[in-house]
Design brief:
Order of helices and strands of chain A: HEEHHEHEHHEH
Strand content of chain A: 15-25%
Oligomer: homodimer
Largest sheet of chain A: 4 strands, mixed
Helix content of chain A: 40-55%
Radius of gyration of chain A: 18 Å
Structural class of chain A: alpha+beta
Strand order of the largest sheet of chain A: 2-1-3-4
Chain lengths: ~160, ~160
């Protein structure tokens, strides 16, 4: 029976291996269900030119493809670093049960990644964020939300 | 010369069209650079079984593929709904200049999406979140961060 430290070792090994190969930053993750690894992810921001290709997001994408389902309830994620807000929110959307992490957002800040900065930005009121956010066309957009509510066959997620 | 309301109309049209087609929730987005749309995104959570396939994330992925670059500085995103924390953080990672949005996170909550709930969770101290987070194997993971710092040819992003 594998232990949490065994699964985390795999996540850390992925982080090292793919960092060395130049695929992206030093981040790896695995998703585990029923005691088995169902997907592996590593940072691919550099190799794919995709700023969303963080280890956890990649692992979630692969796990949902492997299971054929956007709901990963009953599974756990092991990530070599505390998830950034993008990855944390992705974990909530994927309904993962538990997060094991090793390095922290402060460790990531120490090696010049923006995780901690983005954690400070997300909870701010819209008008106080570094990025400008402007609301327009609310009435037109709200009509589509009302059409969604009126739609008989919608799937909630 | 197109105006912000024209670009937002496209984002809203995408949200309606793809919701109707059953691809996912009622969310659309476009990314604009130098007055032209460089990518379109819509929610594809249902059609792709990918919980990370939100409109903004999809638009960012396509824009970075189209430009061959993970850095979208100089571009703006028009999204039919205020970005959820995953999409907001993705926008920061992509270095987009500005966000135009139409519906709000409260409107999304009113039609049963979890955006507002996740906004409440992200800033909480780790031990107070609904999802359990456990730190293990810190020493082993920190060695990889130190190896990243020592790496001569790393690209910062």
């Amino acid at each position: 029976m594998k232990k949490p430290a065994d699964f985390m070792k795999k996540a850390i090994d992925l982080s090292h291996e793919h960092m060395t190969a130049g695929h992206g930053g030093p981040f790896g993750a695995v998703i585990v269900k029923d005691g088995k690894i169902i997907s592996e992810g590593w940072n691919q921001v550099l190799s794919t030119n995709d700023p969303t290709a963080h280890a956890e997001v990649q692992a979630i994408r692969k796990a949902s493809q492997n299971l054929g389902c956007f709901d990963l309830s009953g599974a756990e994620i092991y990530t070599s670093c505390e998830p950034c807000p993008m990855c944390l929110a992705a974990i909530y959307w994927a309904r993962l049960d538990k997060i094991y992490y090793a390095n922290t957002r402060k460790d990531a800040a120490d090696i010049d990644f923006d995780d901690d900065f983005i954690y400070q930005e997300v909870p701010k009121p819209i008008e106080q964020r570094k990025i400008t956010m402007t609301q327009i066309s609310h009435d037109e957009a709200l009509k589509v939300f009302k059409a969604w509510t009126a739609k008989g066959d919608r799937t909630l997620y």
